[in-house]
Amino acid sequence: MRFFVKRIAGYTSRNGLKSSLDEWFYLLVTNYRKFVLTTLPILDIDSQSNIQKAGTQPFGSANRKVFENNMLNPNSPLPLYHQLSDILLERIRSGEYPEGSKIPSEHRLAETFGIGRPTARQATDLLVRENVLIRKRGSGTFVAEQPKEVDLFSLAGTLSSFQEKGITLQTSILKDAHLADVGDDDENPFSNKNAYFLSRLSRVSGKPVLIEDIYLHATIFSGINRIDLKGRSLSRVVAENYYMRPVGGNQNFRIGYLTGKRARGLNVSGKTPVLVVKRFLHFSQSENAIFSELYCRTDQFVFSQKIGGIQNG
């Protein structure tokens, strides 16, 4: 997956690269080592609307020595191919291997680091799976172009977040807005109440990116089911029709797995981890007047958040 927040809110790859979320936590999922954020089975980070990317260290002091010395440590519990992949990642991060550049051949890597070619191959295979490197038949292995970054939490709305980056988002309605009985859900502020509900799917260049299930306060947004929402920014609809703008909000993140219609909508298997975001928007009339559940594929974009300055009290 590609959500980018180094260590705190968002997802950053273990070395600061914008990588794919398919291999999110190397400590969380067996053989997955992309995002070093936590050893917990679920990442649930509450964040205010001004959360941002912060830096992470690759793996700790022992491994930083590997980077500093450009040497492999046979006594480390980390396999040699992992160590080599970390060195390559650090060189990419530092700009020694910029985007589009060719990295040394596996023969040269094996010779330089005193390892066998199969070990060098394992290291590059790992980075290819993580979409950090790409192989070109007959040419070699190159540093992949890094994905575009989108601010996941914007009070202006999801559509505006993509538009600000010059990305055209095509949105289709999966379920039209209607008044629904919300079931028992501890995280949903409308649990066991009535709320307007709608679901929409967003695509970029025809490829599914995210699904949003949106719940709106039944009284404050009365009649929203009679408004045509196709292809429109919900935040703009609220501003133009209800003369309201959000005054704040918060959201949390976790990894999830989809089945049924959601999996088919995003074109993922039940074994593919996706980024799940639960978003709460506050208005002057009511807190949590809009609640959204976002299911994000992150193989095309890095989702980020901005953090404001921290003031000492």
Structure description:
The protein is built from 7 helices and 11 strands. The chain has 313 residues and is an alpha+beta fold. It folds into 2 domains: 21-143, Arc Repressor Mutant, subunit A (Orthogonal Bundle); 150-304, Chorismate lyase-like (Chorismate lyase). The strands form 3 sheets. The protein has a 7-stranded antiparallel β-sheet. It has a two-stranded antiparallel ribbon with strand order 2-3. A two-stranded parallel sheet has the order 4-11. Helix 2 packs across helix 4 (117-129) and helix 3 packs across helix 4.
Outline:
With 313 residues, the chain is α+β, with helices and mostly antiparallel strands.
What's the level 1 CATH class of the largest domain? Answer: Alpha Beta
Look up the CATH topology of the largest domain: Chorismate lyase
Amino-to-carboxy terminus distance:
36 Å
CATH architecture of the largest domain: 3-Layer(aba) Sandwich
> Which structural class fits the helix and strand makeup?
alpha+beta
Biggest pleated-sheet summary: 7 strands, antiparallel
Query: Whole-number average pLDDT?
Result: 76
Any low-confidence stretches, pLDDT <50, length ≥5? Answer: 1-69, 309-313
- Per the principal axes of the C-alpha atoms, what is the gross shape? elongated
User: Largest sheet, order of strands side by side?
Assistant: 1-8-9-10-7-6-5
